[in-house]
Amino acid sequence: MVSEDVFQPWLSRWRLVPEGEAICTHSSLLLPVQSDGVPAMLKISTAEEELNGGHLMVWYAGDGAARVLAHEGPGLLLERLSGQRSLIEIERSGRGDEAARIICEVVARLHAARDHMPPETLYPMATWFRQLEPAATRLGGVLTKSAAAARELLATPQHVVPLHGDIHHGNILDGDERGWLAIDPKGVLGERAFDYANLFCHPEAKVAKEAGRLERDCFSRNRNRDSLCGANQIHHSGRCRRLVWMAKPFSDDLR
Questions:
Q1: One of 166, 184, 195, 217 is an active-site residue; which one?
Q2: What is the enclosing helix (H) or strand (E) of 78?
Q3: Which of 17, 92, 127, 185 has the greatest CB tally within 10 Å of its CB?
Q4: Residues of the chain with pLDDT > 70: what percent?
Q5: How far apart are CA 106 and CA 10, in angstroms?
Q6: pLDDT class for 252, splitting at 50, 70, 90?
Q7: At 50, which CATH number?
């Protein structure tokens, strides 16, 4: 159990009222709060990647992502997304095509051009994958293929943009009237197709391994191709399979 004392500096600074149990993850501490009567979530980052992601959340300015209400040091105050819909449940109910369309539409919003420069703290993709080569040398197996794909793709990046870096069904939440919104970016700079290729790395292995799942959900059944331009691009460019192999270690917690 996490003590509220950990949150006290930010509770006092931003005049927040706790409203629920604290949550502890491997990289952050979370506490539901009220901010001037508005439901919010106080997040204290305990890992460098979460600090970096906080800067990217500020840069998103609520477009495709949860709004940042305040930000100082490791503390981030976010609008609380309390919609009742869940992409994981949509996927489990057999509506994978709908879930894939939603994810791709959110990613397209995150990748949209903005009129201000992105954070300087974004990880270059090569830095983000720095542990892949040593792991491939040590463990072999699927990591050898992943490392080979990474070497090729990192040497020839295309359409470089700020990346969320951890797109999956649990990181896009229902924001009620604001629609579906992303949370918990890692803050990476690299080829935009990586955020779409991450769809292969579904958190449920059984779903991820279904033959033709992404092609069916993202391409064949999709009627709104404008919103899926990034996904269609990697599908037709021949880079899709290599991007998937590059992303695979992330789905297996080998980073």
A1: 166
A2: strand 75-79
A3: 185
A4: 77
A5: 30
A6: very low
A7: 3.30.200
At residue 52, what is the residue type?
N
- What is the β-pairing status of strands 28-35 and 23-24? antiparallel
Q: How many residues are listed for the chain in this entry?
A: 255
> Same domain for 45 and 13?
yes
Q: Is residue 92 located within the same domain as residue 207?
A: yes
pLDDT digits (tens, 9 = 90+) for 9-40: 999 999 999 998 999 988 899 999 999 999 99
What is the CA 80 to chain-centroid distance, rounded?
17
Token couple for 235:
């599908």
Q: 193-214 burial, b for 16+ CB within 10 Å, e for fewer?
A: bbbbbbbbbbeeeeebeeeebb
The DSSP secondary structure of 84-110, one letter per residue, reads S--HHHHHHTT-HHHHHHHHHHHHHHH
The model carries a pTM of: 0.84
What is the rounded end-to-end Cα distance, in angstroms, of the chain? Answer: 27
Helix or strand or coil: residue 21?
coil
166 is catalytic: yes
Q: Counting beta carbons within 10 angstroms of the beta carbon of residue 36, is it exposed (0 to 12), middle (13 to 18) or buried (19 or more)?
A: exposed
Q: How far apart are CA 24 and CA 223, in angstroms?
A: 40
